[in-house]
Specification:
This protein has about 375 residues and is α+β, with helices and mostly antiparallel strands. The chain has 6 helices and 6 strands, in the order H-E-H-H-H-H-H-E-E-E-E-E. The chain has 2 domains: about 40-55 and about 275-364, Elongation Factor Tu (Ef-tu), domain 3, CATH 2.40.30; about 65-245, Helix Hairpins (Orthogonal Bundle), CATH 1.10.287. Strands 1-2-5-4-3-6 form a 6-stranded antiparallel barrel. Strand 4 (about 310-325) and strand 5 (about 335-345) form a beta hairpin.
Length: about 375
């Protein structure tokens, strides 16, 4: 059996243990109550989160960046196609200009040839008019038959000579009629050459201008091929110019789209979620009700006992766009808020349950 001294010692130990236990329970109860009061009244707390590859938000950001890169590749392919089409159109324009130059030179040569022929016809026309005028005068005056009648009446020529002279006069009249027909044909030919020369000059002027070709009329059979070549050459030039303008317009739009997508990719990679794809990024989940306390540059405090024994751990960075859902660190209910980037001087603060903005909860 225990002596009185041992019983007293055991009794004292029991009392001391009970006191310590009650003190611990009371302290825990007080701390629990203090935590409840803090979370009910405080708006300066947030929950640290470490973002890295594999996190749901990081995976979503990586997928969005991948989609942008796919779109960038598609736009790049279309831009290359537009550049190739523009290069082909430029070559087609050069070929069409060479063909137009060839056709224009041919037209100029045709104009020179027909002007020379027209001058020859005009000279012949004047000669025929002079000859016809002389024949007309002789026939109208009766000189061709008057002397024959007088000579035959005086028996100076026989009937054979008289008949021969009369036949000559008839031939002269027939020749006169032939000259009239020849004169009409020469005039028609001269007019035809005038029309062809005018048509060729008009065609040459239209080829030299940028205006569309008008309807070409009055083309003779020997100029149909030349006219068709001119029309085809100008049509090829106009079509190539339209294709070039279309390709250049698409190049401009696609270039703008490419620059925009590249800018979007750069912006996404510069965000915390984008940087978290390749490295660790420390952020804080901030409920909407506390967001006003987490302005960029605000100091952050980490505490050894959640809300006690605090020290400065860093400062607040830029907010991350997008809504985030999380569980309340004390009450366990779902809450909504945003992520805010942090610049931590104490890496261990990222593993704490909560972090505080502006000041320590109880100023120590």
């Amino acid at each position: 059996m225990l002596g009185p001294s041992m019983l007293k010692a055991v009794s004292g130990l029991y009392k001391y243990s009970a006191f310590v236990l009650l003190s611990v329970l009371f302290s825990a109860f007080c701390f629990y109550g203090l935590m409840i009061v803090y979370f009910l009244v405080s708006d300066g707390w947030g929950a640290p989160v470490t973002l890295s590859k594999g996190h749901e938000l990081v995976v979503r950001a990586e997928r969005e960046i991948s989609d942008l890169r796919v779109n960038l590749n598609l736009v790049g392919q279309r831009l290359s196609e537009a550049e190739l089409e523009a290069a082909k159109a430029e070559r087609a324009i050069e070929d069409a200009r060479v063909l137009i130059s060839y056709v224009a030179n041919t037209i100029d040569q045709e104009v020179l040839t027909r002007e020379a022929a027209r001058k020859t016809i005009q000279v012949n026309l004047k000669r025929i008019e002079k000859v016809k005028k002389a024949f007309d005068k002789s026939v109208e005056s009766g000189v061709l038959t008057e002397n024959l009648d007088e000579l035959f009446a005086k028996r100076l020529i026989n009937r054979k000579s008289y008949s021969a002279g009369t036949l000559g006069a008839l031939e002269a009249e027939q020749r006169l009629a032939g000259l009239a027909g020849e004169l009409d044909r020469a005039r028609d030919e001269a007019a035809n050459f005038e029309s062809m020369i005018a048509m060729l000059k008009s065609l040459s002027a239209q080829l030299a201008s940028d205006a569309p070709l008008s309807t070409i009329t009055g083309s003779s059979a020997d100029l149909v091929l030349l006219t068709k070549q001119a029309v085809d050459a100008r049509s090829a030039l106009d079509q190539s110019q339209v294709q070039l303008a279309s390709a250049q317009s698409r190049q401009k739009l696609l270039g703008q789209s490419k620059a925009l997508i590249e800018w979007q990719i750069g912006e996404q990679l510069a965000t915390p979620l984008g940087r978290a794809i390749t490295s660790r990024i420390d952020v804080v989940f901030v409920p909407y009700s506390n967001s006003h306390s987490f302005a960029p540059g605000t100091p952050l405090y980490s505490c050894s006992l959640s809300i006690l024994l605090c020290h400065e751990a860093g400062k607040v960075g830029q907010p991350i766009p997008g809504e985030v859902s999380a569980v309340h660190p004390f009450f366990g209910k779902p809450i909504r808020g945003v992520f805010v980037e942090t610049q931590l001087d104490d890496p261990d603060a990222a593993s704490e349950e909560i972090i505080h903005a502006e000041r320590p909860p109880f100023f120590f």
